[in-house]
Write the structure tokens for this entry.
Amino acid sequence: MKKIFDFIDLNAEIQWVIVIILIILITATLTFQIWKKVKPSNLVDEMMLRTKSWWGMCFIFLFASLVHPIVTYLGLAFLSFFTLREIYTLLKLRDSDRTVLLACYLSIPFQYYFAFQGWYTMFLIFIPVFLFIIIPFLLVLSGDTTDIISSMCILPTSLMLGVFGISHLGLLISFPEMNTGNISGKALLLFLIFITEANDIMQFICGKIFGKHKILPNVSPNKTWEGFIGGVICSMIIGYFMGFLTPLETLPLILISACIAILGFMGDAIISAVKRDFGVKDMSDVIPGHGGYLDRIDSLSTTSSPFFHLIYFLLLA
Amino acid sequence: MKKLILTLIYTVFWRSFNKIIIGLKYHNHKSLRKKKQFILIANHNSHMDTMAIMSAMPSKYIHRVHPIAASDFFGGTKLNKFLMKYLVNAILIPRKKANSDKDIDPIEVISKLLNKGRSVILYPEGSRGTPGVMSNFKKGIGYLIQKHPEIDVIPVYLDGIYKTLPKGTSIILPYNCNIIFGKKIDFHSLEIDDIVLKSEESIQKLIKRE
């Protein structure tokens, strides 16, 4: 593959992705502008707002992921932090949980430090093993046993949702074996995020156009079988064409894209159910048109960890 | 010098800390820039309330804005008094009415400040009270506004800030919260009870708009 811009110090593949993202954004913006002129409706206005937010998110993301690894880690750590803050704002926790909440927040720098150093084992066991023991014990130390079981379950789970999954994005670019030869962690990271977000969008579009049969009527009325299957198929096609980012063969490439699509749907459904329990429509109103941080990264938090291990299994094992 | 210290503490440090770490959102705080003198009234549940309001003040005249604090709570030691004076820019008043000539009359103290052209931050509930619940306003606010009807009274609603540092705890934790500045209150009647009622209503209105 040839570089598009010779003078910029980036892989040819990554330059291509940036150009593709820009083309998509420009096309979407123009389409909705024209659509609005021809036939104004609330849906178009919402789409335009969403596209506008996509511009912002893409720029922040590309800047953070390409400038310097340290910027990437800081960006991801803050993303985790904002996500946790969003969850804890809506959770009704006990006053005696406050010290433990501080410990939860403090686990973020540790987790990302392990990712930064590429300490694979420590990174993997820190939250699911170590903190699953330490957090309940810290709760015990606070001395208040009323409703302690719910705090014991909620706090580690919140870390899994907000920190553990997302931090795998960081591990991709620091893991030594993923950055040797023709494998580039950065390209894999871009592939993962591209497919996850494309799947979100395609599920949304297919659901809007073909949607008839509800898949989870009690949790999220917007999700339909048509949207889900359409999303999976579209993701497989997009994954096939974006395959230049990965060193994978065609068959595993398509299978991995399908896995990302299915896992992304699961993450989306999990957060939908959580929101339903909280009784809110969006986690917060930070990103206009999308809702909160967790509304946007819900699918990423479930796709990134399995994606990492699938790649590990296929390429390195 | 005092202006510089206060600007550094509030406009630089607390504002960025509140925005990035705490997750505090400022609504409509720019409306204060054009005003020269005002009385801010807010609901009160936490020590963070003062930090949130002070950090929203324009740096141009932050040294002329005084939070009003209770001397029985904050004026215990000399160090406390010093910190309150220089780091918070607060004025300490006794919480009780003056019974004899020797006692300091709290209304008189604030009144003098207003005559000097200063602005004040008041918590008409009198204390932090139950978390998340707004209690009835004390009558002091009525006496004060009756004396100075020409000064703009601006309601401020602090939404969820109490969660970051509730009464009786000592760690500040991040929570998404809001600080909302309202429009100045038009008092139709200057009866004490009407003033108190009207100011309570104006904050209730800010709550409902959310």
Observations:
- The CA atoms of residues 18 and 62 of chain A lie 8 Å apart.
